[in-house]
Amino acid sequence: MSDGHRIVVVGAGAFGTALAAVIALEGRSEVTLLGRDPSLMADLRADGMHNAALPGIHLPDALQYSAEPEILAGAETVLFAMPSQAQADAAAQFGPYLAPGSTVVTCAKGIDRGTSRLLTEVLEAVLPHHPVAVLSGPGFAADIARGLPTAMAIAAADIAEAERLAYAISGRTFRLYASSDRTGVQLGGALKNVLAIACGIVEGMGLGDSARAALIARGLAEMSRLVEALGGRGSTVQGLSGLGDLVLTATSHQSRNLRFGISLGKGEPPDFARGDLVEGAFAAAVAARLAEGHGISMPITRAVAEIIEGRLDIPSAIEQLMTRPITTE
Ligand SMILES: NC(=O)C1=CN([C@@H]2O[C@H](COP(=O)(O)OP(=O)(O)OC[C@H]3O[C@@H](n4cnc5c(N)ncnc54)[C@H](OP(=O)(O)O)[C@@H]3O)[C@@H](O)[C@H]2O)C=CC1
Ligand SMILES: O=C(CO)COP(=O)(O)O
To answer: What is the mean pLDDT of the chain?
Structure first.
């Protein structure tokens, strides 16, 4: 039975559809998936399946679909599940329809490229009268939508708000842990994508699993330095968003960021058969710029950014990383 909490998930891609499906499966909150394409939403309603984003996965009967932004007026909580670089536009587009005081949760894993700002800052600038929370952590959309056990983090400035959201969104297969560190939780998601690309390069070049483990551990140190520099808690990235998500995406071929890195490592053009979104390819340069601006060392992130921009070849990047001055851990 629903507790009467109403949630709208905006963005009918893989993650938005999976989140809406898993919330509907539990039935604790009423949930509507809001997409921009009316014909897609009509097809989802008719077929109970999103063949483009989540092929072969049945969506729960309780899930409702809409292409009408007016539906937002009835929601206490709104999840923004579009890509990072679309979050500012989405806030401008959907903001006027939001119910007063409703909470907006960014579910994207990235940093705004145009402004180098965190997504919470981007959303707060456009939606100053709405609390802004962050959902991030390890979980592939297909696993979540299939009802496989998954755990993620949800962060709000007010921990009581994070706990309220965790309860409203969690279910038997999808478990959210509450946090008050929005900076740590969102940077954990954004930066792990950059490190997954690095691990893909290592895999594509056949450099071995030991190199991958070193990247994961040293990458985690980079993450926590940037989190602290931007006012978060370094220890946050030792949790689900950060280490948890890095282990997942640095090792699973389901990850688009890992697959992109593998292509780079093999010297092949990336295979974007379905126009795959590779968030780390946007985040690398922004994170490297932020690190430089704050005077902190993020050599792996910087190398990934320079490789993607074509300013550094992979053998030189490896040489640079391996010949840095010997230091303490
Ligand atoms: N896929 C996954 O396993 C996971 C993804 N994420 C994160 O979720 C985010 C989205 O990824 P994912 O769902 O995979 O991406 P997809 O490419 O599958 O879907 C993105 C969706 O965003 C919609 N969209 C784009 N711009 C806007 C806009 N301005 N307003 C409303 N909707 C918009 C698109 O709608 P349209 O079709 O109308 O253009 C599309 O449906 C990323 O940041 C990703 O890192 C997080 C965890 C897991
Ligand atoms: O963030 C994800 C799982 O937690 C999805 O990773 P990719 O975007 O690399 O596919």
So the answer is: 96
pLDDT digits (tens, 9 = 90+) for 249-259: 999 999 999 99
Distance of CA 87 from the midpoint of ligand 1 (Å): 10
Pinpoint the residues of the chain covered by CATH 1.10.1040.10: 188-323
**What is the number of the ligand closest to the CA of 86?**
1
- CATH fit for domain 188-323, picks 3.30.360.10, 1.10.1040.10, 3.40.50.300, 2.40.50.100: 1.10.1040.10
Integer angstrom CA distances of residue 230 from 116, 181, 290, 294, 312: 12, 11, 9, 8, 27
Distance 261 CA to ligand 2 centre (A): 13
Q: Output the pLDDT for position 103.
A: 98
Q: Residues with Cβ within 6 A of ligand 1? A: 10-16, 35-37, 53, 81-84, 86, 89-90, 93, 107-110, 139-141, 277, 279
Say how far apart CA 187 and CA 296 lie, in whole Å. Answer: 15
299 vs 321: CA distance, rounded Å: 7
Report whether CATH 3.40.640.10 matches the domain 6-180: no
Asked whether the CA dihedral 248, 251, 254, 260 is positive or negative, the reply is positive
Instruction: Please check the confidence at residue 275 and state whether its pLDDT lies above 90.
Output: no
* Ligand that comes closest to the CA of residue 18: 1
pTM score above 0.95: yes
Query: What are the residues whose beta carbons fall under 8 Å from the beta carbon of 19, sequence distance 6 or more?
Result: 9, 79, 81, 107, 135, 144, 169
Of 54, 193, 264, the residue with max ligand 2 atoms within 8 A of its CB, to mutate for a pocket test, comes to 193
pLDDT, one tens digit per residue, over 146-165 is 999 999 999 999 999 999 99
Atom from ligand 2 closest to the CA of residue 196: 9
Is 192 a catalytic site residue? yes
pLDDT of residue 273: 56
**Mean pLDDT across the stretch 242-266?**
96
